[in-house]
Amino acid sequence: MKLILLGAPGAGKGTQAEILSKMLSIPTISTGNILRAAMKNGTPVGLRAKEYVESGRLVPDEVIIGIVNERLAEADCANGYILDGMPRTIPQAEALEASGIDIDCALSIEVEDQVIIDRMSGRRTCKDCSQTFHIVSNPPKQEGKCDFCGGELTIRKDDAPETVKARLETYHKETEPLKAFYESRGKLKSVDNQPSIEATTEVIKVALGI
Ligand code: AMP
């Protein structure tokens, strides 16, 4: 299964990707997580990406295409993968096609902007392993600490309210046209965000027939 998850920032792509990864035994490739790790490690890609990520703008396509092509060439991607946060522009989607990648489905998680804004203000991300939590809907067992690695939970710089608004604008302008792109290829499926993580997983399973 080669699956693309589409949806606004904060739509729950990362959370659902992680659940589906376990269910289908395929890796999730999250460009956001790869970029944050590169930034933390101060690599050339990280240094280039930093100002874009922190201000809520998109990192240039050629950087993303390079990262993803490299990652998809790794052995664990042989039986499929979930792309979380890529493609985010039409040129990125075209680059995937140009690499001969034939995806099975682009699944869009539909959430209203106001729900996203409320949700992002409660998001907490582990400084060490990037695991995400939410102070209301998915709290960690111990406040401020990651359940998985014990790392410190932080508020991502780009989850600040002004940056969230910029990211939503970017989403509507640059990423939403991908729905029509995949629709025209007969690959688009859409689900509505549900009141809980589990309920959203259920509607996704129905949409994917898994
Ligand atoms: P995410 O964790 O997916 O919300 O991504 C965080 C940030 O990383 C985005 O706001 C962008 O600045 C950058 N980013 C992640 N994926 C991409 C992509 N496919 N294209 C451009 N920028 C990206």
The span between the termini is 11 Å
Bound molecules: adenosine monophosphate
What's the shape? Answer: globular
Content of β-strand: 15-25%
For the biggest β-sheet, the strand order reads 2-3-1-4-8
Question: Quick check: average pLDDT?
Answer: 95
Radius of gyration: 16 Å
Low-pLDDT windows of residues? none
Describe the main β-sheet briefly: 5 strands, parallel
Beta-strand segment tally: 8
Main structural class: alpha/beta
Total number of helices: 9
**What is the N-to-C order of secondary-structure elements (H for helix, E for strand)?**
EHEHHHEHEHEEEHHEH
Give the proportion of residues in helices.
Answer: 40-55%
Task: Describe this entry's structure for a reader.
- Helix 2 packs across helix 3 (44-55).
- The radius of gyration is 16 Å and the shape is globular.
- Strand 5 (123-126) and strand 6 form a beta hairpin.
- It has a five-stranded parallel β-sheet with strand order 2-3-1-4-8, with helices on both faces. A three-stranded antiparallel β-sheet has the order 6-5-7.
- By secondary structure, the chain is an alpha/beta fold.
- 33% of the residues are buried.
- The protein has nine helices and eight strands.
- The structure holds adenosine monophosphate.
- The site of adenosine monophosphate has 17 residues, from helix 2 and helix 3.
